[in-house]
Structure formats: structure tokens, C-alpha cells
Amino acid sequence: MTHDITVSVDTDALRHNVETLRALVAPAAVMAVVKANAYGHGAVACARVFADAGVDWLGVADLDEALELRAAGVETPILAWLHAPGETFERAAAHDVTPGVSDVAQLEAAAAAGVRAVHLCIDTGLSRNGAVESEWPTFFARAAQLADRLPVEGLMSHLSNASPEEDGAQLAAYLRAFELLSEAGVEPPLRHVAASAAGLHYRGSRGGSVGMVRFGLACYGLSPFADRPAADLGLRPALTLSAPVTTVKRVPAGEGVSYGYVFRPERDTTIAIVPVGYSDGIDRAASDRASVTIGQRTYRVRGRIAMNALVIDVGDDPVEVGDEAVLFGDPALGRQGADDWARAFDGITYEVVASLSARLPRSYA
Ligand SMILES: Cc1ncc(COP(=O)(O)O)c(C=O)c1O
């Protein structure tokens, strides 16, 4: 019953966030990261808003995501940094998508395909994609040889956000790479290491006056920090997930509720069914722990979250079929935050929004 579930996205909030972030890191450039369906917010719509709000770049994980944006008419520069083995980059060249390349093979393929430019991805300690330090001399030498026909526009790395010391060690490695690349005769205009956490925190990681910050979560008004709510950072959560109550029923004390009967009310109570479940992207581990807001009141999710429904205990309150139940939204409006949901299943805020099923219709206002 996806039509009953509303994922509404406040485009003013998206715009506000991007403007706030741009002002914060100026004169560094800003990339808005719209991978994973714009963290569940809807890739094309968000990309348009961010482009309109003046972001310099859009970032996606792979070429499929980039091509979806190009097909929708988005013209902002797009960087894509995760590629299938054997990727030829012909699609990137045809649609003016800039690949982040992690090794010599990708560099050669990008050159052969005739892409406009590349960013070199280096691993400074995260141990994911990107060339590791022992590979830098060969990688950079080949980039220098190809630079006439394949400009190196950026040097990128990604932080682990482990601790200020460990991030500092990654930054030091990044600077070593930049020097080595310069010695090879290549000086990419865009240096970028920081994502939301480092972009909001560490001035040094913003890459200096020619740098760029790749903001993902913060663009959507959510905080990457467990101990700092988004409002403290001047950000506004853009997404609200809600659904009308479909059923209300009285349950006697001791009666089992939902699968496995893990919840049995201690006294007679009223339960309300909200038609949102794990197939919509709600983590089942939030069963019996998360809360939902109806009007001004917050009610606990009770029993196991099912595929298409969850149950809340509304006590003796006069909740009715059709009442709007808000799972999460902007806490400034009296809702649970996505971070509250994350805590309810020992997850992270990223998962709460990025897991929302793409088949749920999004509405933008
Ligand atoms: C390479 C890269 N840059 C930037 C980001 C954005 O991160 P955040 O959402 O923490 O800003 C991501 C997200 O995982 C990423 O993989």
C-alpha cells in the first residue's frame, strides 16, 4: 500500500542546507553527494534543487546513477567513483560524467574512451577504493604521461572519521600524495578529502582555497555526529516519513501482538496499525524500541515490525483511522528525528534515510 505512505521532502530545507554549507566552507567548492537515490530523498529532484542552489559538483557512486541525472537533463558536473570491473567509461564520455579513477587500468580506460577529465582516487587509510601509497608512483607517472589528452582535474580521498588523530594521519598521507603528484608534473585544481563530518569540523581538511568538500548527509539536513543534532549545525532535516493509521483496535491485557507475540500489553489498551514495514526500508531491529508521533503525542512501536506494517500502543488515547502517524521528520516540528530512529535499532542516521524503498513515491514541496 505504498500509496498510503508519504515521503515528503522539503525543498526549501534542501536549499537552506546547501546555502549554509556553501557559506561555511567558502571559498572551497561544494559537491552535493546524491548517491543512493540522494540518501533516499530522490536523486533527480534533489540534484535539480542542489544545482539550482549553486553547488559546483554532484557526486554519485556509479555511472548508472550519473546517467540517470543526465537523462533527466541535469547539466552540473558529476563525479562517479565506484566502477564495475572492466568498465570502459564510454558511457561517461558520451554523457560528460567525470570518473574518479582508482588504478592505472581505469586511467587507461578513461583515456581510451575520451572522457573530458578524471579525478585520481587515492587510499590514504580507509582501505576501500583508491590507489594505495605503494601504487602512487606508477599511478601518478601514468597520469602525467596521459595528462595532455586526459586532464587530471582532482585528487580525492575519503576519511574514516575514526578520530582526529587518525583523520590527521590520513590528511598527512593526502598531502604526501599531492606533493608526489606535483613532482610528477600534475597539479589538479580540485583537492578533496572531506565529507560531511570533516567538512563541518576540520577547517584543515577542506583542502585550502582550491579545495572542495563532498557533502552528503548534511545536504539533507542530518547530522553525521551522534552527539550533535542537525539544528546545532544550522541544518534542517528535509524528509518526513508518515502514513495514515489504517486500523485501531482494543486489545485486552495479556493478548499477544504481532509476530512471535513479543509484546503483550500489561493492561487493556488500544493499538493502532501504521502501514509501514521493513519492505519499505524500516529496520526490523527497531521493533519495540522506536516511536511514532500522532499530533503532539509520541507512541512506542510495539511487537515486531512486519513487512508492511507496524503497531503502536496508543493507550486510551482517541486515535482514529486516518490519523497521520509520523515516523520521523524535523524535530523542530515536534517529530522524532531520523537519528532517533537510528538509535532505536543501533544504526546510523544514514541508514534510516538511505534504506527507504525507492518504490515509495516522494513528494516535494
Ligand atoms: C567518497 C565519498 N565522498 C563523500 C561522501 C559523503 O559522505 P557524507 O554523507 O558523510 O557527507 C561519501 C559517502 O559515503 C563517499 O563515499
Plain-language structure description:
By secondary structure, the protein is an alpha/beta fold. It has 2 domains: 11-221, TIM Barrel, CATH 3.20.20; 239-364, Beta Barrel (Lyase, Ornithine Decarboxylase, Chain A, domain 1). 28% of the residues lie in helices and 21% in strands. The protein contains 11 helices and 17 strands. The protein has helices spanning 11-25, 35-39, 43-52, 63-71, 90-94, 104-113, 136-146, 164-183, 196-201, 338-344, 349-354, and strands spanning 6-9, 29-33, 57-60, 78-80, 98-101, 118-121, 152-156, 190-192, 212-215, 239-244, 247-251, 269-274, 291-294, 297-300, 310-315, 324-328, 362-364. Strands 8-7-6-5-4-3-2-9 form an 8-stranded parallel sheet. Helix 5 (90-94) links the parallel strand 4 (78-80) and strand 5 (98-101). Helix 1 (11-25) packs across helix 3 (43-52) and helix 6 runs parallel beside helix 7. It is elongated. The relative contact order is 0.14. The mean pLDDT is 95. The structure holds pyridoxal-5'-phosphate (PLP).
